[in-house]
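Hi there, hope your week has been kind to you so far. Do you reckon you could talk me through the fold, stretch by stretch? Thanks so much in advance, here it is.
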Amino acid sequence: MALLPSVSLRMRRHLIFPLSLVLFEFATYIAHDMIQPGMLLVTQEFGVGPQWVSASLTAYLIGGMTLQWLLGPLSDRFGRRPVMLSGAAFFMLSCLATHWVESIEQFVLLRFLQGFSLCFIGAVGYAAVQEAFSEAVSVKIMALMANVALLAPLAGPLAGAAFLSVGDWRALFGVFAALTALALAGLWYAMPETSDKPAAPLSLASIGKGYLALFRDRQVMRGSLAIGLVSLPCLAWVALSPVILIHDAGLSRFDYALLQLPVFAAMIAGNLTLSRLTSRLPIAQPLRLGAWPVVGGLAIALFASLISPQSYGWLTAGLSLYGFGTGLVSAGRYRLTLFSSHAGKGSVAAMLGMVSILVIALGIEAAKTAWFRGGSRGFSLVNLSCGLLWLGLLSGFLRENQRRQALLSAE
């Protein structure tokens, strides 16, 4: 009977750790989805034009790419737990620091620093979950975290618009810091140390050599570029829709938030459809099925823009169909890319993350330029171009994957 309290304590900690990690992930995602309705308020306060609206998300994403290459080896050397706790504490402090920004440049710099949090979740948090739990339990936890990633853009704009109707945009970052503080307390209490590798010194030369080999691997690069391209229209919409709908179309923040719902609800529907198809079809088949709504939805958005540049309802409808396709191809495209190389999965995941985020960050700037020069037609043309490039890369990736499987079968 004396063992029961210790067993209960272990079970409680095993539950608190993933929940705290999910809460931290939610805070990092909601930190860019909730602020988007208020970005025009930010630009107005600092006396700059709407061209700066998308800079917030671009800086956040570039921050999310910056440290990925280092955090995996760093957590091998010093342990997952101290690296993860440091990342959560840094994000909390950088959110609090937003209260004192006095210029748009300072604001964007802090957004860049806050984006580091994405690196800690991908390179350290996910690895710790895989090491701490059995395969079946870790799959369920990862599924929960994927749903959080989809729910944040669904609820974030509406929650942000509601908050800004009664509070200041700076206070939003206090909310993000409070959520992170709660997650940090849970991680400090319950996160186990899962890294059992010897404390060998870090070798930048070996790290660089490994990434160079991945850069030369066409299959890894095809998959990584494809992931960035297919995600770009969604994130370009997140970054620019305040300008498109509030600044240019004159809609209220609540109307803007409501027009986000069909896009991200469609993504969730696609993800749920993928869950039902996974046990019935080969992993590559949903990718082929999802190509139709991805390209078709982006084509509808461009066609509607050509007929009527102010047809924001049809633009949203096209992006919603695209969103369903994106949800349908999400898990398969990541897993096939991750296992397309024999290199360590942490290095492949970091390379995948760096390349895809770089594509998205550059693509958002291209979509912004297209919008300010060509309106909804230019914006939709960039999105469709990304969809067609993705389709070409996907076709080449799947052909090479099929060829490799045939060679393995022949052996």
Summary: Confidence is low (pLDDT under 50) at residues 1-7. Residues 10-191 form a domain with the Growth Hormone; Chain: A; fold (CATH 1.20.1250.20). Residues 345-410 form the longest helix (66 residues). The two ends are 56 Å apart (CA to CA).
